Fold this protein.
Amino acid sequence: MTSATHSSSFTPGADSADAVLLGLDPEQREVATTLRGPVCVLAGAGTGKTRAITHRIAYGVRSGQLMPASVLAVTFTNRAAGEMRGRLRELGAGGVQARTFHSAALRQLQYFWPKAVGGDVPRLLERKIQFVAEAGARCRIRLDRGELRDVTGEIEWAKVTQTVPADYPAAARKSGREAPRDLAEIAQIYGTYEQLKRDRGMIDFEDVLLLTVGILQDRHDIAEQIRTQYQHFVVDEYQDVSPLQQRLLDLWLGERDTLCVVGDASQTIYSFTGATPDHLLNFRTKYPQATLVKLVRDYRSTPQVVHLANGLLAQAGPLSGRAAEHRLELVSQREPGPDPVYAEYPDEPAEAEGTAHRIRDLIKAGVPAGEIAVLYRINAQSEVYEQALADAGVPYQLRGAERFFERAEVQKAILALRGAARSGGNDRLLDDVVELGSQVRAVLSSTGWTGEPPAGSGAVRDQWESLAALVRLAEDFARSRPSATLADLTVELDERKAAQHAPTVQGVTLASLHAAKGLEWDAVFLVGLTDGMIPITYAKTDEQVEEERRLLYVGVTRARHHLTLSWALSRTPGGRGSRRPSRFLNGLRPGSLAPGSRPGGPVEPGARKRGRRGPAVCRVCRKTLTDAGELKLMRCEDCPSDMDEGLYERLRDWRAVQAKEQGMPGYCVFTDKTLMAIAEAAPSQEGELSMISGVGARKLARYGADVLAICAGEDPGTEDPDDA
């Protein structure tokens, strides 16, 4: 969804080729009218590249210079191909083929297989992970779920880089791959996987490209038939082509140069899959006579967002590679908007809560929830934002990842916890383990949990992060309910799962930065921007670090109007604030201005400023508080409580009624810890109630009158008829 925000595309029903050119800027018009010879379009984020290439095809068709059936436009996702087909239909060029590389190759393979090979086309293996698991078993190599996914990724990388099993170890070492297992073991699994497919007459998606390449190389008659069919080629997102896809494209072209490629080296973020910008960067070397057009007019983002995006890439160092050397300086075409906001928080829950509150304010101000996104580096970061948005009453939807409670490792862990809860004292894992948090850690150790995170990246780390989130959730639950059992925890987990299944079609998007590529929103929140997360810890080489910079650049350029960048100094409340903001923000964020640079924007009001806030102390013994539950109560757990037990029970009864009426778990109204704090404070005025942690503005407005009535010994819910 990279459409420009200026005038819409060609009006259906126009009867001239010139009408197709209406509304294009000079550079887009040059792309649209240059129909001969090789054309290279360097298109920055938000510059209307899809508009330019679809109008190019439509202009060629409408002017009679291109036959619709002779054009093949290829891109990388079914969504992008579908969008392209839709635009071409609107422009009167509906007969043009717009497909992904795999879709185009599969269509050709199915058509030419009987002639080239004979018999039926092998069946397509939709999910290769089962075959990889079987291959591992045959090699007597046991793979857990995370390793299984990562080994599958290594096999896919090997195939798109045209690396055979015997050559995999050397190729992986040369490319600096962070392999999940011993390279020789992966090569053995890879070879067995290929043999399994051959034995069962099946092919995978990479085979579709490999076999099509093989047929076109061996059968010149078939290659010529395809070249006769397709005279003109357009390739979108050209910075993401793999060596195998480039080989297929070369065979489609033959000796011709009727090729238009579109890309942006600064948006190369998929090198781990085999994608490389080299083909884009070397295009004019391969085709010296090529027409080069640069699209730098940004129709998506405000000048403030564009200024930050340009500054982010401008700070790439001298060893940052050729992609940085070919960066485009974007020029915003929109009216000025708000400055990007930089927000620093003491801990991750505070960051999530602050983000959720700002999102709620934007929605109240008229920004649709569907036009807001929260973007993070890895999927494991989603859980705390799912919970914060749920607590704030903001609908959300996850893109590019399973919901937290739908992840396989989370479901397996909950099953293990439920089994341990049923067995009680008969579970040997729980021998001599009394404290709830320790019990959970002991049970989860059987599902892959370890005290320290695994080295490297990929599914193994994602799985560990999911289990770590469960451990933290259990520890927080135990602090809020010291007498809670494993059975109580499983009930809490079920309630949380149910609460996160509310309709979210129009909700705020939660997505990883990788999954956000190609999308855009009115408001974007880039969260968790600390060193070690972006750039991620396992980005060691200069090339890997610079790809992380490009990933952040992609995130920044998703925003049209509102942009917030935030980080937390500690993982947990009261933890040591040892984290630092991402090095990529140095010289851009306030307080880190490089010599001669300009401030990038204000610090979010209410966000923590380093060094400005002293430690919280117990209101009984004045001891410094660090525990999250103690911070909520503002006293040590061991200090005497002056809580009114009767008031606490009345508040719990009232909460149960509210939760039932609203179809939500009780903790979504108020947590037990918040009810305890209210019962201890016994507030008599709204101001006193609002000072209690867990009673935000929304909950104060919704429940404040009831709570104050209960504290005053009155029945809640009685209101003046006129007010009603």
Notes: The first strand starts at residue 39 and ends at 43. Residues 495 and 665 are 6 Å apart (CA to CA). The chain is about 45% helix and 10% strand.
